[in-house]
Amino acid sequence: xxxxxxxxxxxxxxxxxxxxxxxxxxxxxxxxxxxxxxxxxxxxxxxxxxxxxxxxxxxxxxxxxxxxxxxxxxxxxxxxxxxxxxxxxxxxxxxxxxxxxxxxxxxxxxxxxxxxxxxxxxxxxxxxxxxxxxxxxxxxxxxxxxxxxxxxxxxxxxxxxxxxxxxxxxxxxxxxxxxxxxxxxxxxxx
Amino acid sequence: xxxxxxxxxxxxxxxxxxxxxxxxxxxxxxxxxxxxxxxxxxxxxxxxxxxxxxxxxxxxxxxxxxxxxxxxxxxxxxxxxxxxxxxxxxxxxxxxxxxxxxxxxxxxxxxxxxxxxxxxxxxxxxxxxxxxxxxxxxxxxxxxxxxxxxxxxxxxxxxxxxxxxxxxxxxxxxxxxxxxxxxxxxxxxxxxxxxxxxxxxxxxxxxxxxxxxxxxxxxxxxxxxxxxxxxxxxxxxxxxxxxxxxxxxxxxxxxxxxxxxxxxxxxxxxxxxxxxxxxxxxxxxxxxxxxxxxxxxxxxxxxxxxxxxxxxxxxxxxxxxxxxxxxxxxxxxxxxxxxxxxxxxxxxxxxxxxxxxxxxxxxxxxxxxxxxxxxxxxxxxxxxxxxxxxxxxxxxxxxxxxxxxxxxxxxxxxxxxxxx
Lengths: 190, 420
What we know:
The complex is a heterodimer of chains A (about 190) and B (about 425). Chain A has helices at about 5-10, 20-40, 40-55, 70-90, 95-100, 125-140, 145-155, 160-165, 170-190, and strands spanning about 105, 110, 120. Chain A has about 190 residues and is mostly helical. Chain A folds into two domains: about 1-100, Orthogonal Bundle (Rna Polymerase Sigma Factor, Chain: A), CATH 1.10.1740; about 140-190, Arc Repressor Mutant, subunit A, CATH 1.10.10.10. In chain A, helix 6 packs across helix 9 (about 170-190). Chain B is α+β, with helices and mostly antiparallel strands. Chain B is built from twelve helices and eight strands. In chain B, strands 1-5-6-8-4-7-2-3 form an eight-stranded mixed β-sheet. Chains A and B meet through helix 2, helix 3, helix 4, strand 1 and helix 6 of A and helix 1, helix 2, helix 3, helix 4 and helix 12 of B.
């Protein structure tokens, strides 16, 4: 979570949603979260654009009493991602096939091609790349629900209370689920 | 210790988190915030996972930045609205609303306004009275009228017709009596012509004044030897009512009678027919003269008769002649009465007190009428809206009840996508 984002969250909630500021602080995180859910770059770009457009259309209905702008935005992004997954399910398009539509560029500069093949910048293996591979494989091995929780926690940077609001569950339930997903991730990485 | 804020998620949600779990989650939050934590493995995992965050492509970031700044102009839905846009949208919406309201008002007015020419009376309980006034002196029997009609019909005379019509006081009179007289060289003077007249009259009286009008009609009819042949009236509880009459008035006083009747209210319909029965009258009159001359001849012959057979034969013919002259005399009298008395078919109507406000008295449309119409339309529209609201209320309640169900189903459907 960037310092700018933290500063934005720390300040008092404005009476009206500052959409430009919200976009600037959250666009990369939204993309990361969406990409981790839908699994391919092209779809992630579309869904990210749809999510921001929906948020822009609904910006007047944002109610600060019901949550932070960031939590509100990620709820919209999550719904857009789930709608895309539902659409895929209806059209019987396997996620693996959809993943072939493009590669997701990771923050470290490596790229995940279709099928999960790895390529470093200089073409040589190194321990960091191996570790990244291991983490990536561990994340991919999680169940979709756990992967959703990990993404909400690690990419969206939501607190347990915000995750609870997004999922429509209680905060202690959200904490339990997050811990369960974290344990699964740690186990997969070990 | 973290406790649940929610009370609706069940007993499990109410249970506090295990302290060890809560501590690990707190450590996770600290690591995500960039703080140093004791659990090095968790700190490393956080760094590694964050390093795996997919990076937003630069072109997407640039494109979205542009679309956010422009209010997503290339996508469906309105772009970011400026104050001018909002003003135009507001004006456009207001115009559409006003136009829709005006259209609704006009349609409502057209559909709900009572017809001008025929008064619609509501279905409230009625008090009816009907009767036939035959007490007037000199009222002819129906049989004699029938005989006269039959006689006139069998005479085969041409029936010159004079007709005068008037709608709502706008007089449209066509007097064909003089020009329609037979031009067959008859020596009958125009002044002596026998013309049968009939008048249809419809008059609207003020609400609640029908009883007075009915009384006044009887007085007008009985002037100068006229009478009320038939009458029927019905009155309602809100001052509305209708009455119909068949009047027989002296033809010589017809104009005066029609004028008096017209003064009872607003004439909404008037029609007058005239039929020249001079030929029939002259024919019957001539046949009566002939029969009288025959009687005189028979009487003279009877005075000269010497045998019993001649006397008996002449007496029989004189008796037949008497019968013929009596019949001709009745026909002549009936024709004379048809010419001397005019039939007026009169209809009186009084609107209800509510409808009376919507109907003008003199046919013109004044500002007061406009205000009354506006009030009438407004009340009608409001009534319609109330009816609509009443009809829509059950559906609105159903929709209100179904909305949470729909939301829950949609949420479950979305969550199910994660299980795919």
